[in-house]
Structures are given as C-alpha cells and as structure tokens.
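To assess whether ligand presence alters the predicted conformation, the chain was also submitted together with adenosine-5'-triphosphate. Input:
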Amino acid sequence: MALTLRNSGRSADSHADRVLEVVRGGYQEHSDDVVTLSWIRCLNQYNLRPDKPRDPAVMGRVLLEERRARHAAVLECARYEMTTLYQQLADTEMAVLLTDTDGVILHMVSSPEFAAEVGPLGLRAGGVWSETEAGTNGMGTCIAAASPVCVRREDHFYTQFTQLTCSAVPVCDPSGNVVAALDVTSRSSLMQQHLLVLLAMTARMIENRLIDHQFRSAHPLHFHSRPEFVYTLHEGKLAVDDDGRILAANRSALFQLGLESMDEIRSRRIEDLFQTSLQDMLQRSASSSFHPVVTYRTNAASRFFAVARRPAAAADALCLPSSAVSASPSAGASLAISRSRARPPVKRAPAIGCVFEDPRLVAQMEIARRVIARGTPVLLCGETGSGKEVFARSLHEGSPQASGAFVAINCASLPEALIESELFGYCAGAFTGAQRSGRRGKIQQADGGTLFLDEIADMPLELQSRLLRVLDERRVTPLGTEESHAVDFQLISASHRHLPTLVRDGRFREDLYYRLAGVEVQLPPLRERSDKLELIRGMLATEGGPDAILSAEAERMLMAHSWPGNVRQLGHVLRTAAALADGAPITRVHLPALAVNLHAGHEGEHAASMTGERAGVVAATPPCSPPGALHGEHHDDAHSSAKLNPIQTNERQLLLQMLEQHRWNVSNVAKALDISRNTLYRKIHKLQIEVSHPEQGA
Ligand SMILES: Nc1ncnc2c1ncn2[C@@H]1O[C@H](COP(=O)(O)OP(=O)(O)OP(=O)(O)O)[C@@H](O)[C@H]1O
C-alpha cells in the first residue's frame, strides 16, 4: 500500500507532501520497502523535513585527505574498477562514486560537464551523503540498510535530488564489515536492475582485491565446484597462513561452504573444510601447473576444484625485477607496479601509408589513446580486414609504452594446444617436446609494451579463465613452474565476431568480456568510411609504388565499390591493378573485378551491408545513410564535427544514429533517452546537429 502511494503522482500535490503522507498516513507499519523505511527514518529518527531542504554538506580538503588516507586500501583497490565501470557504462550524464560508511564521497568518476552540473548539489569529492545529512539517497540508504538499493527520482527524500537516480551496493572488507558504498548516479532511471548487477560484480572485484592487498603474506586458495569458475569473479577465495589457518574468505567462499559469516570460518584450518592439507594442496597445484585439482569437503561428498599458491609477497621477493621492487615499496605492489612504470605518451606519426582521417576513427583513436595510457584494456571490433591490427599498432605507437614491444598473437591461427604455452611460456622440461631452455611467453614478452590478442573470440574457454587471472593479478606463471612473474603490459584485443552473442551462447566468458572491453572501439567497414578517397590514394602509393597513377574513371569505380573485404581487399585490388597497368595510368580495364559492381550500383552496397549483419557484426557504427536529405546530413556531419572534441564527436554520432532510428522525431528520441525535449534540443544545438527535418508525428 505504501509502495503504491509512494509511486502515485496523483494523491499528493507535491513531492514533499507525498513523503509526509506516506510516513504519517500509517502505511509504514508493515512496510518492508527499503525507500519507505528510509523515509520513516529520515522523518522520525533524524528529524529531517522534506519541505525544508538543507544546503549540501561538503567536507573541507584537509579533512577529506585525512579520510582518504584512512581508507587508502579500499580507494586503491576501487579506483581502477570504478574507471572500468564508468567506461563500460559509456554515459556522459552519470557518475560512479565511492563513499565511506559516513557517506562521504571519497572518489568520483564522471565527465567534467556532468561533474559541473551536479557539483552544486554536493555530488563531488567530500560531499556528505549519509541519510542523516541528505535524506533518502543511493549511497546513504545503501549504508543505512547495508544492502543494495535503487533510489529513483521521486524516491529521494528531498525534492532537489528528484532529477537523479542512484543505484548503490555495499563493499565489505575481508572481515565481512561494510567499508564503503559504490554508487552510480545518473540522469536516466532506465536499466537500474542491470546496473545493480554490474555494480555488484564491481564490488566483488574490489573485495577480492582487498583480500589480496591485506593478506599478501598469506597463501591464496582459489576454489569452486566447477573448474571453469576457478580464477573468475565467481570463485571462492581464501587467504591461508603457513599453518593452514584461514585468515580471510570472500563471499563466494562462504556461500559455497554453506557458512553464514566470517566468524564461522576465521581461524579454522584447511583440514576442517577440505579433505586435504595446505601442503598437499600446494604440491598438487604446482605439479598441475596451477590448473585446478580435485578435493572434497570434509565430512561431505561435495567436490571442489582448487588451486593453492605461494604468498604473493614471497613470490615478489623472488621474481620482481629490481626496478619494480624499488619503485613499489608498499604492500600494494601489484597495483603500484603498473603505475610506477608509466611514461609520458610518445607522439609518433602513424606508419607510412596508414590512413585514419574519418572523424569517427579519429575520435575513437583519441579515446582509445587516453584510456590505454591509464592502463584500461581496449577491445577492437570490426569486420575482417577493416584494419584492427593497423589501428592497434598505431595505438601502441602513440602510447606511454611505445618504447616497449608490440607483441601480437592470433588466437585463431594457433592450434588450441599451443596457445597456452605461447601465451604463458614454459620452464625447462615442462612437457615433452618443450625447448630445453624453456621459453618466455608472449605475455612476458609484452612486459613494458603492448599485448595484442587478435581473434580473441577463438581463445579456448579454459584459457580464458587463466588470462582473466593474469589481467586481475598482473602476474604470469609459466607452465611447469610455481613461480609467478610481475608483468605490466597494455592490452588490446580484437574480434570480427560479436562477443556479446558468444557470451550469451556460453562460448565466451562474460567476466573476461567485461575485462577486455574497458573501452570498445567499433571500426567502421571501408564502405562507411568518409576517408575512403584518402585511403585509396594513400594505399596506391604503398601498394603500387610512387609512380602509380589512377585515372578519374578508375578512382570513381574504386569509390563506388562496396568493399566486402574491406581495406585488405582494397590493397589487393590496387596491387593487381598497378601490376596490370605496368606504369601506365590505371583505368577500368585494370580493375576487372570492379566493372560488374559499377553497374550493380546501390544493390552492391546493400548486399554488402547485409553480409555484415548476417556475419553478426555489431551495428555500433551508424548504418549507411538512407537516400535523400539524411544522406546530406552525414556529409555535413563529417565536416562540422571536426570542431568538436573527440567525446563530443562520439556523442554526436550516437545522437545522429538515434535521430535516424526515430526518423528525426525529437519527442520520441527524448522519450527513448529519458530526458526532456528541451534538454535534447540543447544537446542537439551543442553538438552542432542541424534539425532541418520536420518532426514526424510530434
Ligand atoms: N588505416 C589503414 N591505412 C592503410 N592500410 C591499412 C589501414 N587499415 C588496414 N590497412 C591494410 O589492410 C590490411 C588489413 O588490415 P588489418 O590486418 O589491420 O585488418 P584486421 O581488421 O586486423 O583483419 P583481420 O580481421 O583479418 O585480422 C593490411 O594489409 C593493412 O596494411
């Protein structure tokens, strides 16, 4: 009943009246609705009045820094995960926030524009969002209720926050106590269920990192009832001392062992839980190259797959290169290592003949450069031959690790059995046929540089979990040895297949997908690139030699072709044409493969784009413009977006795409984006989009 009234827009004149009516109307007695309970606390316990809003409370710099120092461990473990979450959500009108248990914002990730908009509300570092200060809100209510919450617009206690929607989850320390709230606050109230799942996953990653961070001198023990879940976010994780006593456990460990709280597991021995000892587990794990080994629950038939390892601190002392040791004296070494080596980005000209002038590509490159410099992995998607590897090399060359190696591995071209040793390397005598001296794997070769995993969709499932672990821990363990090595590399992966579909079909790990796709770059197929002419001319010089000349007719044919094989096919055609012309200008007779297509005209274009769709290509690049006025819009688009910054250019493309999808009906687009028409018009104006199309059905 309270819930119905709370959500009703008709039964009270204003938001504040509605809050008062729900709380005082006697609906609260049997309510277990988290928001109603929070309203009751605000009014009855904290004496807040929804009709008397307070000025936002914001902590001064000195006090904030003191707090940050006190919460240094959780902050260090959360920063990277928060940035990754922000990039995955890819919404400029939202912020990812972390508060301590007093509701003080310790860290916030958002666009500068959104930060400027919400700063006056107190949504910034130092802002105090406890329920006692800010009434019902995502962060404060999550802490008060010690559970995940979603506080949509009118769920807020104070009217001034009803433009925002917040979802938040608690983050626990290795003792199981709530130490922080992780929150996403945005203008949109859509997809909150989905968001809560992502937030919970991010909180689990932070909690797992906290265990590693706090118990570096303990043996980590990873386990799950299914072997493929070991080394993933779903694994049970224990920290065990030299005597086999359990010091800490993550939530999954408690759940799988059927225990309720940390108190039930702390100080128990491995033998109390499993039919094995720590020493036995360490030995068997080492001889299986750290693939999970079978063990059973003590006094029960439940079977688990587990791996035990030496403490990270001991392994560091043995394996870290001296530069890394001296650069990271703190306990958080594995996190500090990658930052300690950061070098300023090296600006290099792209390789000769490498053309990237399409504004979308330029914007994508700019974004990719920025994130890879901060250690975030980049996933390149695009049709075969669209230039993913060329893009990856170019990205590496302009990155802080450009002086390191660019190490590429094609997961589709290696036999499954070889990928593992190629990636992780092996020590002397690891298996029959291994080189006597052992071999450094590609991951170690990429240390200090960039690892490029091409056709990542073809990586076998078992290896996906090992790769995930390397990415989480930034350490690699070659086959046949127990010693792990700290590694610091930039990761770029690529696929022409639609990874979310493979995830849905259970053929690709979801957690690895999210790990790889820190930022997802969609490379447009050649037929959609606005720099096609520059590419043709640039590639003619590399493929045909400096003397190769194109006749106007040949250039027209090349421009009109639909290029199902993309840039690679263009290269072949130009090479063949230059050889056939033998120094004379290239004409129609030197392009026999294209002659048919010229007459086929638009049919060819359409067929090609359909082929792309059938092959499961993600439609994140704008579809080919429909004929007529909209076509003109796209040409204009390329021209005017040159004045925008890369993020705005990207935003503009997305908005154009939506406007086209909704046949330029601004009202429908505003509805789909869950913003007002005025806000949308302001955006359209800011992003220099000309709306010459009359609204249809508005
Ligand atoms: N921007 C570019 N400028 C010049 N040449 C390019 C460009 N992009 C791609 N090429 C050429 O096109 C060919 C294919 O490029 P690349 O191997 O990067 O494509 P890919 O998308 O990685 O292909 P696959 O999906 O088959 O791995 C290469 O020979 C490369 O030289």
